[in-house]
Amino acid sequence: MKKRKLLLGLMAGLLCLSCTACGSSLAENTETYFSTTSAILKTLFASGQTDKPAATPGSDSDAVQLAAPADFTVGEDGSYSFTGVENAEYYLIYFCAPDATSDDDTFIYSSDPIEANDSNTYSGLFSDAFQYAFGDYLVKVYAFPDLTDDAYQMSTAATAEYIYTGNQSAPEINYYWNTFDGTMGVQVANMNAYLYEAYPDKVDVTFTNTADSSDTVTLTIDGVSPENFGTVTDALTRGATYSVTAVATSTNSYVLNPTSDTTTVSDGLTLGDNHLFVDGYSYSDGFANNIFNWPIMAENFDLANGGEAGHVAGGFGSTAFMTTPTTVSAGSSYTYTLQAGSWAAGTLELYPDGTFLANETGGGPVNASHIGGTWTDNGDGTATLNYDHSTLVIE
User: 331-340: per-residue pLDDT in tens?
Assistant: First the structure.
């Protein structure tokens, strides 16, 4: 029993690799998966397990092929049921392309092993077994013998067709108002949702001046994909306050709502002298492998005590830029030592004219660099720091 559990666990892990690597729509989901159903077993027994049997199940020409699972039905809601067969130890469900009719054809998604039970009947929801994208699938279920039993080999498939349709999600939007160059960047934030639906043909993000409705700017992100999910404009009015909405449009035949619900991104964004941004906004400062980036801004920076001067997500996760007050340098209003994560150290100088200079001396794979910006005294002992990435110098 322990051997079987170990092997089933390993198989489940291998199958997870095939599922998590899938793409978004059906055509994109075939990028990474095992080449054939039998390749799972070949991979399993080539993995150096000391408990592997003398022969792979089914490799013996005298092995008896299990009967295919019976009464296999699939509902429009993604439910399934089938009846098991004699001498089967577990079952696997595969989602394949509609024309993948051979047992040797590739698959797109797979369940974990469904262990045999005393009732010999099986039912459930595909969505409880794995995630899958909108699309048209040929669903297969196979019966397998115990992995140590070379007297039997896996069955042929019981098959059923399944078309998965649904409503596309309303878009979620990250934004970045760059006060230095007067640009607004927008990005689709919920790409993971569209990964298992269908990427929209476009997402429209509309900015409407709350004081002048004639000042309306719509940014269109055409052909949304993992490589294309944002755009930038300089057409907005500095000092104005905008309400912001977003909507997705799709002509995908599996999408039931060609126009998504409308998202209210903000009831009022005032484009002033400080940056505005959503923490998930994606950007790169150009360091090798995107291993390091400077922050965009820090609000409520403690002038007297220092502390966090911004944070950013980089190649090694979120990094806080921590400061400690030190002896004030000549010509500065405030001077701090700076520590960015565990490898980059430097200083932060706040000058009387409202500008600042931050530097890090580099370490390990991170080059030394420095960046300027502005700081605004909030009047309560804190300041807002705005990093100007156009001033960044990587040494």
Answer: 999 999 999 9
The domain boundary residue, chosen from 113, 145, 164: 164
- In angstroms, the CA 176 to CA 216 distance is 18
List, for residues 116-133, the tens digit of each pLDDT value: 999 999 999 999 999 999
Structural domain span for residue 200: 173-277
In this predicted structure, what is the pLDDT of residue 342? 79
Judge whether 80 and 174 are in contact, CB under 8 Å: no
DSSP labels, 237-298 = PTT-EEEEEEEEE---TTBS-SBPPPEEEEEEEE--SS-EE-TT-------GGG-----SEE
Which strand (E) or helix (H) includes residue 3?
helix 2-20
Question: Can you tell me whether residue 126 is helix, strand or coil?
Answer: helix
How many CB atoms lie under 10 A from the CB of residue 100? 20
State which of 10-14, 18-22, 249-253, 339-343 shows the largest mean pLDDT: 249-253
- Is the model's pLDDT at 88 over the cut of 60? yes
- Residues forming a β-bridge with 37: none
Phi-psi region of 286 (alpha: psi -120 to 50; beta: other; left: phi over 0): left
The angle subtended at Cα 247 by Cα 243 and Cα 252, nearest 5°, is 175
Question: What CATH number does residue 268 fall under?
Answer: 2.60.40.10
For 20, the enclosing helix (H) or strand (E) is helix 2-20
Number of domain units in the chain: 3
Q: Which helix (H) or strand (E) holds 70?
A: strand 70-74
Which among 159, 150, 241, 165 is positioned nearest to 198, based on CA atoms?
165
Contact at 8 Å (CB) between 168 and 253?
A: no
Distance between CA atoms of residues 107 and 112, nearest Å = 14
Does residue 283 form part of some domain? no
Is there a contact between 93 and 138 (Cβ–Cβ < 8 Å)? no
Average the pLDDT over 149-172 and give the result.
97
Residue 282 included in any domain: no
Q: Which residue reads 């919920």 in tokens? A: 190
Q: Are 374 and 387 in contact (CB under 8 A)?
A: no
Shared-domain flag, residues 270 and 294: no
pLDDT band at 60 (very low <50, low <70, confident <90, very high): low
In the DSSP assignment, the letter for residue 287 is -
Q: Is 84 in a helix, a strand, or coil?
A: coil
